[in-house]
Amino acid sequence: MDITNRLNFWGKGQLAAYSGLDGETDFRNGIVLRTREEAAFDLVLPGRGVLTLAAGKKPERCFLASDCFEVDGVCGVLPDCHHLLVEGPVSVELADRTFLVERKGKRTLIGTAAYFRPELLDADLPGIFAARRAWFAALPDFGVTDPVRLGALAKAYSQLKGQINSACPEIPYAWTTPDRWPHRCMWLWDSVFHAIGLRHFRPEIARESLRAVLSQQRSDGMIPHMMSPDGASSITQPPVLAFGVAMVQEVAPDPEFLREAFPKLERHLEWIFANRDSDGNGLVEWFIEENPLCRSGESGMDNSPRFDSAVQLDAVDFNSYLSLECEILASFAVQLGLADRAAHWALRHETLNALMNRLLWCEKEGIYMDRDVKSGALTGVAASSGFLPLLCGAPGPEQVERLVENLNDPARFGTALRIPSISRDNPAAYSKDMWRGPVWININYLVGRGLERCGRREEALRLLRETVRAEEFFQHRYGTFFEFYDDRGECDPPQLLRKGKCAPEESPYHQVFFDYGWSASLYIDMVAQLSR
Q1: Under a CB-based contact definition with an 8 Å cutoff, are residues 99 and 42 in contact?
Q2: Which of 107, 110, 362, 375 qualifies as a FRET site for 417, CA 20 to 30 Å off?
Q3: Which ranges in the chain are annotated with CATH 1.50.10.10?
């Protein structure tokens, strides 16, 4: 794609780091920078510091990618994972001795002290910068001509490139992270959504990123929700890995990859059935935590009102994902000539769909809801998760109609920006905090796929168009893709709450994340769909 006059927005919160597409990264010691409001970068990893390009003002003109920049005549590149080379007038303030700085003529080299290479002051900065810009030329633009969409697409590619880490001893494949700071580990379902975007321009890296997650599988079959060279968590996350494999296979079939992944995917699902069905009724339940700000990190919907009661629930989303995974495994088994496994997983899929329709469908509300395991009663909390059975084909025609009515009802889910994470008619539970109201791009994406599967293609396209336009609007305004968005259009993403407050001065975890992975990656795939 042509990036002339693209990537020319300077805004707070954009990340810069060396990409695993270009060489070896370093999880513990690699440099990561984050833009300030003015023309300056915060050095956020592995230590702290500030690189100022023009004190107290925003740039008049700039080019800003995830691994190089040119700002009012100051040019910079990350020649490797440990160094930043800049040419032009800059000032550097360091908070500790993690970094070293050396100057030569108009050039400044900032590097991680333990790996500092002063000879990089003489590196071919113009050549590296030109190569980084030239990387975009081979990327697909899907026939897009709208300048705003082309700008957002260029940013999405750049951002996704910056989220790729190289293989390392602990993770033997290239892997991705939601953002290089502060969410810098590898996450299960994020990796799948990243692969969906990567498949359009680097399918081999998309496969690597899924292999990376599968490589961290425990001996009992469980796959953790968060992994890094420093270890892994003790809970899992939405089972969508088979979906990710299928999406990559769709554009770049690789029989060996399928044969390699299949037994690992089977073992993961068997672990879920064995360890997340406490009452043995066939439906599974997320792990529930004591933390009121994150009752179910395993679900990915950390603080949703669904979990406020802190009890075990037959969870709509968990069973929808699991049913889809079973269906996909059945299709994989057919491709691999494993008739008995195909029958096994097809039956699992059909059984889960039947159980969801019998136990989780709320006829009064026209949506699927979670069910209290002990009381057997539906929770009464209508959430975006209630639309996910569309994804696995569970609802019949009348149920699909009721779900679409809910999506379009302004008193329920037909908000200024759909799909709110809880229904609008639940004001007591509403907040502009993560999963208590705001819109998440991955849920919109999955529900869109579910609508198309269930024969509501125009509804699916309408949802995708709305979602893409909202992402473009805020990318054009702020230069970035955000973690979540306001369903009511009352405030911009940076004003939303996260984990109870909007206080970035206290912690980066108390503000919506900027340069967020799946928001960019799924944007690429949605643009591709709409262009077709």
Answers
A1: no
A2: 362
A3: 147-531
What CATH number labels 147-531? 1.50.10.10
pLDDT in tens, 290-317: 999 999 999 999 999 999 999 999 999 9
What pTM was computed for the model? Answer: 0.98
Residues 296 and 237: their CA atoms lie apart, in Å, by 10
pLDDT digits (tens, 9 = 90+) for 259-279: 999 999 999 999 999 999 999
pLDDT at 350 over 90: yes
* Cβ(57)–Cβ(39) below 8 Å: yes
Work out the percent of the chain whose per-residue pLDDT is above 70.
Answer: 100
Burial 48-78 (b: 16+ CB within 10 A, else e): ebebbbbeeebbeebbbbbbbbbbbebbbbb
Cβ(467)–Cβ(445) below 8 Å: yes
Query: Concatenated DSSP letters for 446-482?
Result: HHHHHHHHTT-HHHHHHHHHHHHHHHHHHHHHHSS--
SS3 string, 119-186, reads: HHHHCCHHHHHHHHHHHHHHCCCCCCCCHHHHHHHHHHHHHHHHCEECCCCCCCCCEECCCCCCCCCE
- Spatial neighbors of 363 by CB under 8 A, at least 6 apart, are none
E strands, 384-522, are none
Q: Check whether 54 has a pLDDT greater than 90.
A: no
- State the Cα–Cα distance between residues 175 and 180, nearest whole angstrom: 12
Which residue in 91, 48, 156 sits closest to 441, CA to CA? 156
Check: CB of residue 513 under 8 Å from CB of residue 502: no
Q: Cβ(128)–Cβ(23) under 8 Å? A: no
CA 160 to the chain's CA centroid: 10
Give yes or no for a contact between 425 and 366, defined as CB atoms under 8 angstroms apart: no
Residue 56 has pLDDT above 90, yes or no: no
pLDDT at 55: 80
The two structure tokens encoding residue 185: 């580990």
Rounded CA-CA distance 115/113 in Å is 5
CA neighbor of 301 nearest in space, from 422, 143, 180, 133: 422
